[in-house]
């Protein structure tokens, strides 16, 4: 029987000799020779470097080869430390670690698996707890590896029932030295039975054999190497193990580098070719999902019909799900995340999603959507975060192409060496895909406009799966719509921007007394409006707490590196109210954008954010705003300056039509009704909203996001390009009954 595993070959490294660097040289040689993995015995009693130290060293001098251990002694190393060592090295090595445990050495392998599994289980929230016979975890911090590190149990006797039980019920691999094929077959049957008894698919368990390089496979081939190497015979023996017994991993144990070289160069290709010819899935194998993964599947999704060839298919039982399920501000539990790394993959993923019309469909670039609609409950997420390249297309015109999954900190870093920047936002972790389809209100807004004002072309996958490029000259109607309502029309797969020349800039963080909040707001608004365009300022007023005086925190960028100009621009701001703290630096736009966390978003629950645009901070508005701040109903209040270059653009030129207001207001709170009660007070002073800062799905928000003429045009286009409402996850437009409707 063959289990459909991708065929892989490794070498057991020589440990314990006089030269501690020998296994390192072997590992490099194995990688050069194209082998898949090296195996290091983890036995404290052995002379030579300790296993995890050695593996770390090897990880540092190799790039691709996987790093497997074999054996573990829980009296010498606590399993919790083993879990941390393996997880840490897995991250450092780019997901190359495999863990081997040995049955029958006195180690309590069951408990080791309990401890390791619990510490790695970040799919279930909370601290790690195990109450074992030898080991206890009483609320330990979990720390997952970078990928699903397989656990293989090994033993000297293929027919050992305990080894078979462990492998069949608890592990991902079963590993034995090759003795005789009959013993191997008997052991494999035991593993299959144990797996079935535990409700697992026997294919979940990879079968490893270690073969001795100098002694051949069968007793009859003992002296083959010494006799001059009969490659064909050895390859045939190994192929039989693969085809007849389902062995997936073959590890060579030898102390002879020539044997290793010939094994890799001659035997391995021959076995692979034989497997390709003999097996339905060839040496590449098929993907077998763990029963633990199957158990967490959601209903209504044709998991078996997911297109092959996607960069990733992440289900609720997969480790990567913990990283991808939620956004920065909203918890999610989608049924599957389809990771697309190319346009073709996006098209395939969208085709699959369209076969599930009753399930929610979300699109995710960097997962920082304030509305949080880039995830959902039980539906499908098409994740394009891997489409994150940034390339300069033309130096002369400063034309750059950026993938939707790039984050603005990455864009800023890539453009900095050219002396360029694109005004984006105030946080480098935000993604290009979400922001550049909505607007982009950034620290350079008054001088350089919105992010979308720098867009020159966008590549889109439309609802019907067609791939289009839009610009002023190609599909201009779509290009108009994408700049402000992009999420309604497709999945953006690339953006072409014209960057601006931006030199050193000043970044000022001021903390001022704002106990007369209304006065502060009016004054700040006045100073901003009177300032030259090279100043853009964002203001946060934290709701006053516990009798503390209200403070105003401003982050202001002056698009100049000249200290005289910077001081002249900041002086009126500083004069508004007494200063508690101030920090002004001449820096780069890339440095300002460097504020991006790589931490996994662990949000739960729903964000409650309300957005509105304000023309002027009048005393009337300011009085109401300061009441809202004191109400206790909101926990976040921010005003951003817009205006300037943003207002230069004709409101009809893009679907971001509210060009005239000078300020963008966002408040956040915990409960929608409480926030809305406060929001109703400021509502009369607002003119439109910026949908990137709004989380409400109420229909009137659509009317506030786009003025009537813009909305009518958008609805016509929606009828043409997405009549079935495939892209309805975020501020969904109702298609008009346009004559062109349903032509696509
Ligand atoms: C901490 C923080 C700071 C922010 N600061 C600013 C700021 O200064 N200025 C500003 O303008 N905004 C800001 N935002 C808002 C931000 O611009 C939007 O929320 C934006 O949508 C996030 O983009 P993303 O790709 O990270 O989001 P995601 O969560 O991945 O996507 C959000 C939504 O965008 C749409 N979308 C995503 N990718 C695509 C795609 N490839 N094609 C089509 N539609 C897509 C989908 O509707 C999706 O639901 C901030 C948000 C946060 C959380």
From TrEMBL:
One of its GO terms (molecular function) is FAD binding. Residues 329-502 form the FAD-binding PCMH-type domain. It holds the Pfam family Bac_luciferase. Gene3D superfamilies: 3.30.465.10, 3.40.462.20, Luciferase-like domain, Uridine Diphospho-n-acetylenolpyruvylglucosamine Reductase, domain 2. It comes from the Bacteria. Its cofactor is FAD. Transmembrane segments: none annotated. The keyword Membrane does not apply. Keywords: FAD, Flavoprotein, Oxidoreductase. Belongs to the oxygen-dependent FAD-linked oxidoreductase family. PANTHER family: BINDING OXIDOREDUCTASE, PUTATIVE (AFU_ORTHOLOGUE AFUA_1G17690)-RELATED, FAD-BINDING PCMH-TYPE DOMAIN-CONTAINING PROTEIN. This is FAD/FMN-containing dehydrogenase. It comes from Pseudonocardia kunmingensis. The lineage of its organism: Bacteria, Bacillati, Actinomycetota, Actinomycetes, Pseudonocardiales.
């Amino acid at each position: 029987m063959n289990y459909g595993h991708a065929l892989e070959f490794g070498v057991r490294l020589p440990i314990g000799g006089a030269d501690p660097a020998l296994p390192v040289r072997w590992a490099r040689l194995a990688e050069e020779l194209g082998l898949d993995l090296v195996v290091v015995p983890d036995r404290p009693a052995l002379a030579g470097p300790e296993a995890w130290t050695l593996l770390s060293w090897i990880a540092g001098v190799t790039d691709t080869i996987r790093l497997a251990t074999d054996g573990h002694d829980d009296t010498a190393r606590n399993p919790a430390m083993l879990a941390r060592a393996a997880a840490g090295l897995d991250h450092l090595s780019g997901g190359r670690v495999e863990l081997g445990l040995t049955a029958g050495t006195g180690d309590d392998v069951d408990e080791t698996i309990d401890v390791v599994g619990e510490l790695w289980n970040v799919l279930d929230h909370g601290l790690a707890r195990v109450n074992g016979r030898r080991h206890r975890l009483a609320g330990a911090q979990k720390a997952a590896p970078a990928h699903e590190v397989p656990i293989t149990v090994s033993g000297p006797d293929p027919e050992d029932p305990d080894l078979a039980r462990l492998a069949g019920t608890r592990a991902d691999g079963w590993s034995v030295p090759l003795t005789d094929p009959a013993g191997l077959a008997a052991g494999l049957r035991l593993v299959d039975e144990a797996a079935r008894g535990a409700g697992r698919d026997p294919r979940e368990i990879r079968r490893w054999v270690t073969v001795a390089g100098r002694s051949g496979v069968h007793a009859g081939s003992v002296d083959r190497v010494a006799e001059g190497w009969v490659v064909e015979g050895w390859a045939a023996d190994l192929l039989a193990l693969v085809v007849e017994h389902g062995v997936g991993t073959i590890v060579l144990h030898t102390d002879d580098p020539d044997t290793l070289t010939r094994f890799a160069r001659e035997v391995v290709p021959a076995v692979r070719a034989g497997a390709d010819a003999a097996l339905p899935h060839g040496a590449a194998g098929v993907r077998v999902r763990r029963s633990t993964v199957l158990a967490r599947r959601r209903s209504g999704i044709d998991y078996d019909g997911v297109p092959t060839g996607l960069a990733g298919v992440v289900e609720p039982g997969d480790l990567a799900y913990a990283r991808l399920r939620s956004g920065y501000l909203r918890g999610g539990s989608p049924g599957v995340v389809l990771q697309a790394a190319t346009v073709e993959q996006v098209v395939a993923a969208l085709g699959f999603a369209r076969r599930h019309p009753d399930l929610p469909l979300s699109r995710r670039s960097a997962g920082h959507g304030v509305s949080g609609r880039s995830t959902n409950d039980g539906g499908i997420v098409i994740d394009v975060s891997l489409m994150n390249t940034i390339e300069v297309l033309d130096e002369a015109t400063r034309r750059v192409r950026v993938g939707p999954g790039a984050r603005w900190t990455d864009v800023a870093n890539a453009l900095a060496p050219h002396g360029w920047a694109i005004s984006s936002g105030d946080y480098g972790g935000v993604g290009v895909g979400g922001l550049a389809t909505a607007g982009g209100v950034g620290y350079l807004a008054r001088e350089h406009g919105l992010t979308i004002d720098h867009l020159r072309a966008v590549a889109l996958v439309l609802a019907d799966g067609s791939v289009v490029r839009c610009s002023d000259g190609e599909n201009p109607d779509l290009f108009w719509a994408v700049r402000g309502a992009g999420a309604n029309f497709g999945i953006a797969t690339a953006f072409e921007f014209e960057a601006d020349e931006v030199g050193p800039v000043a970044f000022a963080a001021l903390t001022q007394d704002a106990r007369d909040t209304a006065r502060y707001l009016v004054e700040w608004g006045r100073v901003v409006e009177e300032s030259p365009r090279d100043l853009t300022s964002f203001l946060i007023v934290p709701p006053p707490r516990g009798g503390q005086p209200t403070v105003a925190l401003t982050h202001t960028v002056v698009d100049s590196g000249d200290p005289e100009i910077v001081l002249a621009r900041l002086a009126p701001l500083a004069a508004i109210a007494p200063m508690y703290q101030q920090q002004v630096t001449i820096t780069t736009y890339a440095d300002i954008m460097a504020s991006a966390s790589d931490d996994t978003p662990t949000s739960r629950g729903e964000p409650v954010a309300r957005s509105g645009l304000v023309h002027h901070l009048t005393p009337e508005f300011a009085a109401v705003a300061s009441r809202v701040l004191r109400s206790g109903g909101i926990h976040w209040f921010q005003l951003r300056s817009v205006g300037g270059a943003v207002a230069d653009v004709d409101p009809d030129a893009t679907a971001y039509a509210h060009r005239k207001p000078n300020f963008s207001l966002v408040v956040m709170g915990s409960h929608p009704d409480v926030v809305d009660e406060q929001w109703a007070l400021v509502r009369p002073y607002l003119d439109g909203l910026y949908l990137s800062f709004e989380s409400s799905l109420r229909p009137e928000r659509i009317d506030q996001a786009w003025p009537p003429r813009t909305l009518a045009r958008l609805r016509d286009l929606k009828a043409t390009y997405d009549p079935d409402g495939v892209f309805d996850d975020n501020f969904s437009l109702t298609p008009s009954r346009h004559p062109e409707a349903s032509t696509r």
